Write a sequence for this structure.
């Protein structure tokens, strides 16, 4: 709780800077309108106007908050203007992709730890692939699969699975290798089989690594889904909301979609953290 | 069909060879280069053989040889896109963003109050889908590379900031006491002890940021760009179903990404030669 005051101070500072920037950036439009109408706005008029424009350059926080609140509650959640509906579209693809990607990552990591040839051939590529901007091919995957008549949730889930796969693979290989030689020797003296060693020693000791990479992976798979929703034609999801906002100059819509995505990302990471704490406590790793 | 079965045969043989080499010579340096190389070649052969043997239409997946021809045929275009996206957009944004993050980290480190407030916020922001601000920044800074650089600045800022702050806290009490007994000033102890000690952390952040920089620069171009640039080329070629061009751009992006990462890793090696992770491997 000692850090609560500093955090609040920083957040307050961000709000103040934001309001200041909104006034400065939106004032140009106000002066322009006033010059056309032939009036001479007072300073107070300018401030009032910059706070409530239809299409501000930078919407002030209260407009974003209002846009977010309207998006979340003002419509029925099945409406195409509801952020809950768009968020659900994004979330469902993210969860499917995350489950597939993380599952494959864990399975392949187990294979790599037990098979030296697989380790030597796959691992360098897995690590090298982290340096490649995979996200950039996301629109291509969508279009290609659409030409094969595969649309909807699956193409987006493929991208988010791909993005969550590598962090889990790399983290899990590290985790499964984390037991030291002494512990492995002990199981050897018990005449434990490979499967037994995996189940009783390697998997439990990989848990901290697994959760650390799951947190990275779930954030990455959400980003993957959102970028996957960007190509033209997508009409549902937070990414499509961002794109249509940018086409029609609806800045408030962009910002509220952005904050909805941020909230979703934060929520997902927090859920993984809670599961992590429960699992580690159950294992006796944390008090 | 001969292509397809040939590719499968090659795969089986290569797998057998790899397994054999791994079992016999798995710890020797040449084997550790040869095995992944053979694996990579196998993937290419399987790809080529499947596409040719099953006659996959090139609007779905072009064969590697077709992609290679396309790369050779359109080198000037690829170079123009590379300059626009990587050199102008990603690199300038990367330098500005990382520089700003390191300077901010040094300021933050001076004031513990700021550190306690900014770090949780920075950690939170680092996990957010920041690419989403791309449309906003494209609106503000126009379609040319400046808006791409701005997206990259925002994307790389927080990972580098968080890592640098963690790095500046990496010295232990004894080392700082030693500096104090030499009556070193704040600047001296920062320059001679704490910044060098922070370097492994800083470089960790810089390496994460290389990939983010490329992603930011390419994705920002989907929201509007002049008629050159890798993101522009990818999105228009997808529209024309010219998938060989898309794959050519992907190959360039992959190469540029690995080269960028490798460059930062090389600099890291010469700067943090003293660190345990860099020693003992030479």
């Amino acid at each position: 709780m000692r850090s609560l005051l500093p955090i609040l101070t920083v957040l307050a500072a961000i709000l103040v800077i934001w309001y200041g920037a909104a006034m400065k950036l939106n004032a140009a439009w106000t002066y322009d309108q006033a010059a056309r109408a032939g009036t001479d706005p007072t300073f107070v008029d300018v401030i009032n106007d910059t706070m409530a424009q239809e299409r501000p350059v930078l919407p002030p926080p209260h407009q974003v908050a209002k846009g977010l609140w309207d998006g979340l509650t003002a419509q029925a959640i099945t409406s195409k203007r509801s952020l809950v509906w768009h968020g659900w579209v994004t979330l469902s693809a993210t969860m499917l992709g995350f489950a597939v990607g993380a599952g494959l990552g864990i399975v392949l990591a187990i294979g790599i730890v037990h098979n030296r040839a697989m380790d030597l051939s796959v691992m360098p590529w897995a690590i090298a692939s982290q340096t490649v901007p995979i996200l950039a091919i996301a629109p291509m995957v969508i279009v290609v699969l659409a030409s094969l008549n595969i649309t909807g949730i699956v193409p987006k889930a493929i991208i988010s699975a791909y993005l969550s796969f590598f962090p889990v693979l790399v983290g899990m290989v590290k985790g499964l290798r984390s037991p030291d030689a002494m512990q492995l020797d002990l199981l050897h003296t018990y005449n434990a089989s490979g499967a037994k060693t995996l189940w009783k020693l390697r998997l439990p000791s990989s848990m901290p690594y697994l959760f650390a990479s799951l947190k990275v992976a779930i954030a990455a798979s959400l980003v993957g889904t959102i970028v996957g929703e960007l190509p033209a034609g997508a009409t549902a999801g937070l990414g499509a909301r961002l794109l249509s906002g940018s086409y029609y100059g609806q800045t408030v819509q962009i910002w509220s979609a952005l904050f909805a995505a941020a909230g979703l990302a934060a929520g997902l990471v927090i859920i993984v953290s809670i599961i992590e704490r429960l699992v580690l406590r159950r294992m006796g790793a944390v008090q | 069909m001969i292509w397809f079965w040939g590719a499968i045969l090659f795969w089986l043989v290569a797998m057998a060879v790899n397994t054999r080499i791994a079992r016999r010579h798995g710890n020797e340096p040449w084997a550790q280069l040869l095995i992944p190389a053979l694996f990579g070649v196998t993937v290419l052969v399987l790809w080529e053989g499947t596409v040719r043997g099953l006659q996959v239409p090139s609007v779905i997946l072009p064969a590697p040889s077709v992609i290679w021809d396309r790369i050779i045929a359109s080198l000037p275009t690829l170079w123009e896109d590379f300059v626009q996206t990587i050199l102008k957009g990603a690199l300038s944004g990367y330098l500005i963003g990382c520089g700003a993050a390191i300077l901010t980290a040094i300021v933050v480190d001076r004031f513990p109050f700021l550190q306690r407030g900014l770090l949780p916020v920075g950690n939170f922001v680092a996990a957010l889908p920041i690419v989403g601000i791309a449309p906003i920044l494209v609106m503000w800074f126009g379609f040319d590379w400046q808006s791409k650089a701005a997206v990259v600045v925002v994307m790389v800022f927080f990972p580098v900031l968080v890592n640098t702050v963690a790095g500046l806290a990496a010295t232990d009490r004894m080392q700082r006491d030693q500096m104090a007994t030499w009556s070193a000033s704040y600047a001296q102890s920062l320059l001679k002890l704490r910044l060098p000690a922070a370097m492994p952390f800083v470089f960790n952040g810089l390496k994460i940021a290389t990939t983010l920089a490329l992603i930011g620069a390419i994705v920002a171009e989907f929201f509007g760009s002049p008629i050159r640039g890798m993101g522009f080329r990818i999105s228009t070629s997808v529209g024309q179903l010219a998938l060989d061009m898309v794959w050519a751009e992907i190959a360039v992006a992959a190469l540029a990404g690995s080269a960028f990462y490798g460059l930062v890793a090389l600099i890291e090696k010469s700067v943090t030669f003293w660190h345990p992770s860099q020693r003992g491997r030479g």
